[in-house]
């Protein structure tokens, strides 16, 4: 049983959905001060883009879009690993994960 | 409509069989332990203690339900449910027997033959971490948390080697569908006609099987890798704070995981429902029954192997476990994969 | 409205609600759990887009690995009680307005674009493993190798950064 496209759902629907998800991610970065939550919001934004890639790939019947999603996943995984390692290191020095306390270089 | 009825019957029976197998694994485990330690084991409830699992379940249900004051209530209740759910979902892609004709249509003994079956199993295995982590964290007990973190880092580490072994098997078969993997193993071993039905992957990949078996032990948090419930260090492990049927769910999920792991091992290394002499049986209904019986014999053999290992080997230390996973199993699995790739390229 | 459309809108609403709960829930552990649910919503969308392989890889990579990493860090740093003092109400209001106007701008700009093209024949097989593998290992083989090197670098980097130095006093 092969599913085809959902009737009545167009690329615009996916565009709106991923725009909403991306904006939620941006709002999160602006609102929160916990560095871990900020990293999670970045993941959310990357996923909004991934969703759009997959949608275009299906609607244009072209697998290149899905390949790009894999590359974005690679980058997201690498970013999460290195980002969390840096975060743990800074936590050891400052005993906090709040980004506003990490402004010592300003002084 | 027929399709829905057929699949519903299949789903309910697979679910029921999974639960019954898990229940009787607890009985078998106790009998087996008793045998290895020269004791009698449960023998009061029913003949040979066969009603013991029902007695245990009844006891679990009627025990006092206790939720610690400082726990995260919703997640505390959700934890065992997630563990049980992820354990049960995996059986959906296992082919339990060959197709057969009945009621004028072909009936397949597989709930869903998705073309990425083995990845589906990997996905649900990797989600199995959450039941343990959420339960351990929500208990708000440091021993539970330690245990949850141990269990999940162990499971993630061993998933890597397991994934590489699965890649090796997929390279040999050329398909991610479990049905194709099983059908591939129905041929003649080394092209000898006398060995028909014995073309099992174990004869081509013995090292892969050993690595996979070790990883399966670690994935199920079974001894010798049961560091998550290491009594001397961690009281009771991630389910220290649990009581009543929530504890029962965690323990039960472990046995279901064991059953599923044995099934997966039997399916991808030991030919699934294939057995030598299969082509001699003409009757389609008899063949199906025989195939399912053979598959279950293999599964029970592996469950017993799991138990044998548990009651024979002492527990590893945590650093030994991590060294084994990262510094031995993963390099070995990668080398195995490279050699397999080279052989496939050469032939 | 057909069943598939209802599924689409349900999944979309689920994803959006879970994503906003990631941002607005006070407890970081809850944030991670909501993000995992968001990932499930997105995986559901991939399935409805015929990208089965992508959906499963998405679950394995995000829910099975990356989110576990986040959960580890939060649990080990013991951030379960909300220790971060919230930003002031004005700041939060401003941030929400900023995010909302970004969304409006994005949607408005999408509205004004020309009609998006659709392939004449939708091939439902492009999301399967075989076609994807073929493209990945022929057209994109160099980026693939480079990304594996990137992964290795990230692995070594994470180990090196996270390693505790010998002379450093033990805080925790």
Largest sheet of chain C: none
Radius of gyration of chain A: 18 Å
How do the helices and strands follow one another from N- to C-terminus of chain A?
Answer: HHH
What gap, in angstroms, lies between the N and C termini of chain A?
64 Å
Instruction: Name the assembly state.
Output: heterotrimer
Shape field of chain A:
elongated
Radius of gyration of chain C, in angstroms, nearest whole number: 21 Å
Instruction: Quickly give the CATH architecture of the largest domain in chain C.
Output: Up-down Bundle
Query: Would you tell me which CATH topology of chain A applies?
Result: Helix Hairpins
User: Can you give the helix content of chain C as a percent range?
Assistant: over 70%
Number of domains of chain C: 2
Mean pLDDT of chain A: 83
Number of strands of chain C: 0
Strand content of chain A: under 5%
In percent terms, what proportion of residues of chain C is strand?
A: under 5%
> Structural class from helices and strands of chain C?
mainly alpha
Helix tally of chain A equals 3
Topology summary:
The complex is a heterotrimer of chains A (107), B (347) and C (172).
Chain A: H1 11-31, H2 35-59, H3 64-94
Helix pairs in contact in A: 1-2, 2-3
Chain B: H1 2-36, H2 52-62, H3 73-89, E1 100-102, E2 105-107, H4 117-138, H5 142-173, H6 178-184, H7 206-219, H8 231-234, H9 244-268, H10 284-310, H11 318-346
Antiparallel strand pairs in B: 1-2
Chain C: H1 3-24, H2 28-48, H3 52-76, H4 89-112, H5 129-138, H6 141-162
Helix pairs in contact in C: 1-2, 2-3
Task: List its salient traits.
heterotrimer; A: 107 residues; mainly alpha; 3 helices; C: 172 residues; Four Helix Bundle (Hemerythrin (Met), subunit A)
Structural overview:
Chain A has 107 residues and is mainly α. Chain A has one domain: Helix Hairpins (Orthogonal Bundle). Chain A is 72% helix and 0% strand. Chain A has helices at residues 11-31, 35-59, 64-94. The radius of gyration of chain A is 18 Å and the shape is elongated. With 347 residues, chain B is mostly helical. Chain B has one domain. Helices cover 64% and strands 2% of the residues of chain B. Chain B contains eleven helices and two strands; from the N terminus they run αααββαααααααα. In chain B, strands 1-2 form a two-stranded antiparallel sheet. The radius of gyration of chain B is 21 Å and the shape is globular. The model of chain B has no long low-confidence stretch (mean pLDDT 84). With 172 residues, chain C is mainly α. Chain C folds into two domains: 1-81, Four Helix Bundle (Hemerythrin (Met), subunit A) (Up-down Bundle); 123-164. Chain C has six helices and no strands. Chain C has helices at residues 3-24, 28-48, 52-76, 89-112, 129-138, 141-162. The radius of gyration of chain C is 21 Å and the shape is globular. Chains in contact: A-C, B-C.
């Amino acid at each position: 049983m092969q599913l085809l496209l959902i009737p009545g759902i167009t690329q615009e629907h996916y565009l709106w959905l991923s725009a909403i998800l991306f904006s939620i991610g941006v709002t999160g970065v602006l609102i929160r001060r916990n560095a871990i939550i900020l990293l999670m919001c970045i993941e959310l934004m990357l996923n909004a883009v991934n969703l759009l890639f997959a949608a275009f790939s299906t609607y244009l019947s072209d697998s290149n879009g899905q390949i790009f999603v894999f590359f974005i996943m690679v980058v997201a995984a690498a970013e999460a690993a290195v980002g969390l390692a840096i975060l743990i290191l800074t936590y050891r020095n400052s005993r906090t994960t709040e980004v506003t306390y990490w402004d010592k270089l300003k002084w | 409509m027929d399709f829905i009825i057929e699949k519903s019957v299949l789903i309910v029976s697979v679910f029921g069989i999974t639960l019954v197998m898990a229940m009787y694994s607890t009985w078998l485990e106790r009998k087996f332990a008793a045998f290895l330690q020269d004791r009698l084991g449960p023998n009061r409830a029913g003949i040979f203690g066969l009603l013991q699992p029902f007695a245990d379940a009844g006891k679990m249900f009627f025990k006092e339900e206790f939720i610690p004051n400082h726990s995260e209530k919703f997640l505390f209740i959700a934890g065992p449910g997630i563990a049980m759910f992820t354990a049960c979902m995996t059986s959906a892609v296992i082919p339990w027997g060959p197709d057969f004709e009945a009621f004028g249509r072909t009936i397949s003994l597989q709930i869903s033959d998705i073309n990425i079956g083995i990845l589906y199993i990997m996905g649900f295995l990797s989600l199995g971490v959450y039941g343990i982590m959420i339960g351990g964290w929500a208990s708000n007990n440091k021993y539970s948390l330690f245990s949850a973190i141990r269990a999940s880092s162990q499971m993630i580490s061993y998933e890597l080697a397991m994934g590489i072994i699965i890649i090796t098997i997929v390279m040999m078969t050329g398909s991610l569908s479990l049905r194709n993997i099983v059908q591939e193993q129905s041929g003649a071993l080394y092209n000898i006609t006398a060995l028909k039905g014995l073309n099992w992957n174990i004869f081509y990949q013995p090292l892969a099987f050993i690595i996979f078996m070790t990883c399966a032990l670690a994935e199920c948090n079974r001894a010798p890798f049961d560091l998550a419930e290491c009594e001397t260090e961690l009281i009771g492990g991630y389910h220290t704070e649990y009581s009543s049927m929530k504890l029962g769910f965690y323990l039960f999920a472990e046995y279901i995981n064991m059953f599923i792991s044995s099934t997966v091992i039997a399916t991808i290394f030991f030919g699934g429902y294939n057995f030598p002499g299969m082509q001699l049986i003409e009757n389609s209904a008899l063949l199906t029954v025989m195939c399912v019986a053979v598959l279950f014999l293999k599964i029970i053999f592996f469950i017993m192997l799991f138990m044998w290992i548990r009651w024979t080997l002492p527990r590893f230390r945590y650093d030994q476990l991590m060294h084994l996973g990262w510094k031995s199993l993963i390099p070995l699995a990668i080398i195995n994969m490279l050699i397999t790739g080279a052989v496939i390229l050469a032939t | 409205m057909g069943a598939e459309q209802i599924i689409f809108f349900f999944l979309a609403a689920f994803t959006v609600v879970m994503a906003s709960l990631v941002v607005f829930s006070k407890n970081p552990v809850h944030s991670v759990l909501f993000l995992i649910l968001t990932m499930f919503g997105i995986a559901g969308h991939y399935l409805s887009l015929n990208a089965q392989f992508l959906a499963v890889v998405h679950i394995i990579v995000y829910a099975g690995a990356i989110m576990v990493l986040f959960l580890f860090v939060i649990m080990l740093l013991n951030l379960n009680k909300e220790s971060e003092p919230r930003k002031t109400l004005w700041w939060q209001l401003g941030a929400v307005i900023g995010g909302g106007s970004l969304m409006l701008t994005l949607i408005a700009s999408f509205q004004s674009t020309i009609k998006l093209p659709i392939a004449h024949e939708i091939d439902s097989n492009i999301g399967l493993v075989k076609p994807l593998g073929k493209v990945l290992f022929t057209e994109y083989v160099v980026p693939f190798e480079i990304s594996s090197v990137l992964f290795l670098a990230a692995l070594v980097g994470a180990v090196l950064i996270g390693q505790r130095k010998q002379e450093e006093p033990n805080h925790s």
